[in-house]
Amino acid sequence: MPQNPLLKLKDNLHYAPDFKTIEAEHFVPALEYGIDIAKNNIHQIKINTDEPSFDNTIEALEKADEIVSDVASILGTLYNVRMTEDMEEAKRHAQVMMNDFSQSVLTDHALFLRVKTVYDQRDTLDLDEEKKILLEESYKGFVRNGAQVSDEDKETLKSIKQELIQKQTSFHQNVTKSINEYKHFITDESELEGMSAHIIATTQQLAKAEGRADDYCMTLQPGVYHDVMTYAHNRSLRETLWRAQQKLCSEGDKNNFTLIKDILKLRNQSVKLLGYENFPQYQLEQRILDTPDKVCDFLGVIRERTRDHYVRDRQTLVDFAQQKDGLSELKPWDIGYYKNLHKAERYDYNPQEVQNYFPLSSVLTGFFEHCERLFSIDFVQTNEVPSYHADVEVYEVHDKQDGRLLGLMYVDLFYREQKYAHAWMSKIYSHHYRADGTRQIPLCTINMSLVKGADAAHPTLLNLNHVETLFHEGGHALHCLLSQTPHYSSLSGTNVKWDFVELPSQIQENWVMEEDVLTGFSKHFETGDTLPKELFDKIDADSQHMQGLFYYRQNFLGTLDYRWHTEISGEEDMDHIQAFENEVAQTFYPDEDREGASMSQQFSHIFAGGYACGYYSYAYCEMLDADAFEAFKETGDLYHPETATKLRELMNLGGTREPLDIYQDFRGRAPDTEAMFKRAGLIDKKAA
C-alpha cells in the first residue's frame, strides 16, 4: 500500500498527483484505505463524550474523509481524459464503494443526532458566515440523503442510488464511445470544398492513422463536425454527418433511451422516499430559483422574448437559401451553413478568414494577459509538477501584488480518442485547510477538444466560438483559483449554487468581443499581422447576427430538460420515451420537419452530469453575466480597478455566502434582467 502513488500525495509538491505513475489499478486500493481511515475518524466523532459542537462534529466531519475526497477528485479528473477500459472498470468499482460509504455516513442515526444537536443550537452559537453555511449544508446533507427515513427505506435508497450512479456512468460512456467510433471516409478532396484547410489536413492524418493514407476521415469530434456543418458546400456530406450525429446512442448496445427511462424512474423513486413530490422539487431546493414554478416562469419569459426573433431569423435563412441556391426547403443540416453564408454576405467577410488570426498559442497568451490586467495575476509554466499527457501544460498562478502562489492550472486543449469530446473545467482541489492545518492551494484543469494542427504549416486555429470557450473554461478555473478565503473545501471555489456557477465563467466571454482585447492577442499564423480594424468592425456588427436562433434553441433545451423531469416518471413505455423529445419540440417548432432530430439520448448534461433540472442555469447566469459586465462598461474602463477588485471578491467567496447577497455587494443592486436581451439585440424595436 505505501507504494500506491495516490497515498503518497503528501510527499508531492502542492499535493499534486504524480500522474506519470498513477494507473487505474491504484484507485480501488487507495479508496479502500481512505474509507477505512475515514470510518475510524467518524467513529471517534461518535464516541466523543463532549457535548456536540461545531468543532468536534461539523468541522471534524468536513475533514474526516480527506483521503477519499482527494482520490475521488483525481479519479474524476483522470477518467475524463483517459477513458480506457481499465479506467472505466476502476470508476465503476470506485462509485460503488463511495456510494456505500457516503450512504453509511449520511444515514448514521447516532452521527445525525450529533449534527442535529449542533444545528438546533445554531442561533445561540457565535459562528461566522462561513461556519453558519457549513452547519446548514451539513444538516441538509443528512436530511436530503435519508437520515430521517426508516431503516428499510435507507437500504432501498442506498440500492437505488447505487443503480442510478451506474446508469448515469453508462450513459456518459455510451456517448463518448459512439462519438469516437464513428468514421466516414471521403476519397475525393473536391467533396470537401469550402472546409477549412487545417481541418482537411487533420482529416488526412486521421485517415492515415486508419490505414487509408489517400483518403479523408470525417468524424463527429466537435472540431471536424462543426467545420463540415458550417463550411462544407457538399450538402450530402452535411446531411450524412448530421444524421449520424442524431442517431448516436439510439440503437444497439449503446441505446441510451433505455437508460433515460431507468434514470428518470430511479430519480423519482429516490426523492419520493425522502418525502418529495418529484425530482424537480428535490433538485431545485438547493438553487436560487428554488421551486419548479420559478424555473417554469423564467423559461416562459425567455421563450416569449425570443420567439418572434427566432421566427424572423429562420425565415430570413429560408429566403436566403432559396435565393442563393434555389433550396425549396431548409433542412436542419443547412442551418449552420446558410447562417454562415448569410453572415459572410451581409457583413462582407469570411469567418474562416478570421480564424487565421487566432492560432492557439496567441489566444492562450491573450487569455493570460487578460487575467493579468483584470485580476493582477501571473501564469508561469512549470515542469516541476507532472502532467497526465504530453499535450498538457501546467501553469503556476501567482498574485502579482505579493507574489503568493494561488494555485496550479493544467491546460489540456486537444481532442484525443480516449478523452471526453467536449469542453470543461475539472477541479482536483479547491482552496482549503487540511486536517493537519496546512493550506491546500487549488489545482484545476481546463479541457477542450480542439483539432490539433497537422503540422507547422497547419497550426491549430480557433474560430471565435473556440476563443469564447477557452475564456469560458478559463473563467471556471479562475473561480477555483481565486477563491482563497474559504477554509472548507465544500464551500470553496465553484462549490456554489448551480444557477450561480456559470457567472464567473460566462462573464469572461464578454471581453472577447471588445476591440482592444480581441485585436490585442490576434496574430495571423502566416504573416504575424493583427486583426485589421475593418475586419473587427464587421465581426462586431455581426455579434447580434441571428441571436434569435441561438437563444430560442437554448430555451428549448432548458424546457426539454425541465419537462423530462416534471412530466416523465420513467414508468412510461419505450415508445413514449422515444417520442417525448419530438412532443416537446412540436410546441417550439410546430411548422418544421425535424427530420428525426434527437439529442436527448446524448444529453449528458442532464442524464449523466449535474445539470438535471438545471439546464436553465446557463440562461439564468447569462442574465447575471450581462448585467455584471455592464458594471465595467459603465465606468468606461474594461479593466476598471475597483470593479475588478469587486469581481475578484465575488469569485473569492465561493459558497461561503448566499449567491445573490454576493452579487448585490458586487453590483450594488439586484441583477437587471434586461441586460441579456439588450446585449443580444433581442429588444422589441417598438418597445425600445
Compact summary:
This protein is α+β, with helices and mostly antiparallel strands. It is built from 27 helices and nine strands.
Give an account of the 3D structure.
Helix 1 (27-47) runs antiparallel to helix 2. A hairpin with a 5-residue loop joins strand 7 and strand 8. The protein contains 27 helices and 9 strands. It is of the alpha+beta class. Strands 3-4-5-9-6 form a 5-stranded mixed sheet, with helices on both faces.
Shape: globular
**Low-confidence segments:** none
| Rg, Å, rounded | 25 Å
Percentage beta strand? 5-15%
The CA-CA distance between the termini, in Å, is 68 Å
Strand order of the largest sheet: 3-4-5-9-6
Number of strands: 9
Helix segment count? 27
Helix content: 55-70%
The biggest beta sheet reads: 5 strands, mixed
Mean model confidence by pLDDT: 95
Overall structural class, as computed from helix and strand content, comes to: alpha+beta
SSE arrangement:
Elements: H1 27-47, H2 54-64, H3 66-79, H4 85-106, H5 109-120, H6 129-143, H7 151-181, E1 184-186, H8 197-209, E2 216-218, H9 222-231, H10 235-247, H11 256-273, H12 279-284, H13 292-325, H14 332-347, H15 351-355, H16 360-375, E3 377-381, E4 393-399, E5 405-414, E6 424-429, E7 432-433, E8 439-440, E9 443-450, H17 464-482, H18 503-512, H19 515-520, H20 533-541, H21 547-567, H22 574-588, H23 604-607, H24 617-635, H25 641-652, H26 659-667, H27 675-680
Parallel strand pairs: 5-9
Antiparallel strand pairs: 1-2, 3-4, 4-5, 6-9, 7-8
Helix pairs in contact: 1-2, 1-3, 1-4, 2-6, 3-4, 4-7, 5-6, 7-11, 13-21, 17-18, 17-25, 18-24, 21-22, 25-26
